Amino acid sequence: MLDLRPNCECCDRDLPPAAENAYICSFECTFCADCRARLPGQRCPNCGGELVRRPIRPAAKLAANPPSATRIVKPDGCAALF
Fold first, then answer.
1. pLDDT 10s digit of each residue in the chain, 82 long?
2. Domain parsing of the chain, residue ranges
3. Protein fold of 1-73
4. How many CB atoms lie within 10 A of CB 67?
5. Distance (Å, rounded) from C-alpha 19 to C-alpha 16?
């Protein structure tokens, strides 16, 4: 099951479970649409994988399957990558 991480790794923008601007790679690294658009090749800076739109978990399933509360943020954001 997807973690549904709560934020963008680059800019720390909140990305709630219903966010339509959340993108993930196969390792679930999570980025907002704005940061993804600025990444070279729109690829994950961690693994080089494709960043695709994160699916939205139905609200009725969130209580039994909550999103992650662990925030992962690059110490210097992604500024060096842009």
1. 899 999 999 999 999 999 999 999 999 999 999 999 999 999 999 999 999 999 999 999 999 999 999 999 998 888 877 7
2. 1-73
3. Herpes Virus-1 (3.30.40)
4. 16
5. 5
